[in-house]
Amino acid sequence: MRIRRVAKVGAPLAALALAASACGGGGEDNGDNGESVADIPAIDINKTDRSELQDGGTFHWGINEYPTQYQVNHTQGNQANAVRVANAVMPQAHGFDEEGQAHPDEDFVLSSEISDDGSTLTFELNPDATWSTGDPITWEDYAAHVETVGGHRDNSDKFDLGDTTGYERIDDVEKGEDKFEVIFHFDTPFAEWPRLFEVLYPKEYMEDPKKFNEGYQKDFPVTAGPFGDVEFDDTAETITVNRDEDWWGDPAKLDSIVYDSYENDALAGVMNNGEIDGFYLGYDAAGYETLKDADGVRMTHAANNGFRHMTFNGGEGRILADQDVRNAVVHAINRQQMAKATLDGVNWPTDPTANRLIVSTQTGFQDNSEGYGEHAPEKAAEMLDEAGWTRESEDALRTKDGEKLQLQWVVPGGLQNASDEAEIAKAQLGEIGVGVQIEPVPNNSYFTEYVIPGNYDATTFAYTSTNPYGGDLAENFVGPVGEDENGEPNWGNNLHNFSTDEINAAFDELSTLTDPEEYAAKANEIDRMLWEQSMAVPLFQRPGQYAVAPEVANWGANGLASYSYEDFGFTK
């Protein structure tokens, strides 16, 4: 029986992405050009019609790590660069425009419709869509994805899952009129459903734990996208994707994309030498100085769907497990100084205002840091005293029960601004008797061996999102998501290794809200909760500043929009 279709995608939460004025922040320290985060454009990609592009060519995309896991639902696959590669060669159900409006990716999903009560979602699949094996992409692939990523399998503990959000609410998946119609039944409405199936994998690699955990480890055994035939060069640390001649959609304009991985601080020099065509410059001051007047380099200027932050490991038994101690550490650190030290050198607003769930171009953006984000070292010292961390003299580290209050602050090698941030924190924390041991680690092992396993006390990095929904960040703050094989809590992609029932419940509620104003209000409420817990303490909204060759089209600072990989190219 055919399910009645009653609502088109695009109405629910996509409206949140409409432009709005910023609240909070601003002021005289917003950068040399007087710009605030609210003034920054939404997108800057040199948008060009396909007819104006050359046929062929290789685009060299500079990235700052060489990922090894490309099953993005795996805990080790939750990395932006892994998703950037996967999106070129794998299916995705929906894309987003620059205003954050969702639309089905018709190369894979011809239509997607939700019932009025949010309980039934129907996809009409493109019958031309096939895996590189020649097998059609059918409802069974989607059903296998839900079964695994939703944690519904009897052996779910064998799958190293990072996040189950949304999928855990689907209690049944059924075949529609034929194998190209799939019907999802939600036990609880999930208003952010367009962000599901960001990357789809064939059922064979979702049903078997070994294939899930290892099948896409530095490999793409099965693909389905405008590019395919993925090549890994461990010596050069490059990933190459080649145009898929069997692709049924608009053919890729490029012959290939090469993801060239370098240490962060090396990318500008490589770009200046003409070895890559573009990379995310962000807040690399030395790189900006190298490239700002360079021939053959354009700097993009737009909002970025991400924020840089300080993350503290509050897991059980860690020195920052105490909320009051985390809050004190935040008060001891001058976030404005950190932001200014980083952003002054790239001619970007140095306002530390950032909202974890809402970007400056979205409705409801505001600063929720009052009482938690201010630089107040005297208050920090008092809080530590009250928490039992005492100091015998002005030069001594604080101690409690014989333990020194000293943080292991991990920084990735080749990223000068991360080292600078750690040094600022070390000096300022030292003033109130908190020690900081800065530990530089290799770039490629920073996440896999230190941050993800919880081998750190403090660090700085960025959270980015590929869709406009604040709930997409839930995986970074909620949990646990079950237990591991030893019966210990599995925190999945929550790198803080703790959460609260209130945060979990609030994110659950957020994802049921379809009214933009209600959604924004709840998102701000959650952002406030995260301030209270000192989770991913924002330093600033990331600059959408890419260095790119002027002839590169449809690539760069894409803000809330999805990339169309087949439309990347070089102007004629």
Helix content: 10-25%
Measured distance between first and last alpha carbons: 51 Å
- Give the strand content: 15-25%
Q: What is the overall number of helices?
A: 13
Question: What characteristic shape results from the CA principal axes?
Answer: globular
Number of strands: 22
> Which ranges are low-confidence, i.e. pLDDT below 50, for 5 or more consecutive residues?
1-33
Structural features, described:
Keywords: Signal. This is ABC transporter family substrate-binding protein. This protein has about 575 residues and is of the alpha+beta class. Helix content is about 20%, strand content about 20%. It contains 13 helices and 22 strands. A seven-stranded mixed beta sheet has the order 8-9-10-1-11-20-12. The chain is globular and about 75 Å long. It starts with about 55 loop residues before the first strand and ends with a strand. The model is unreliable at about 1-35 (pLDDT under 50).
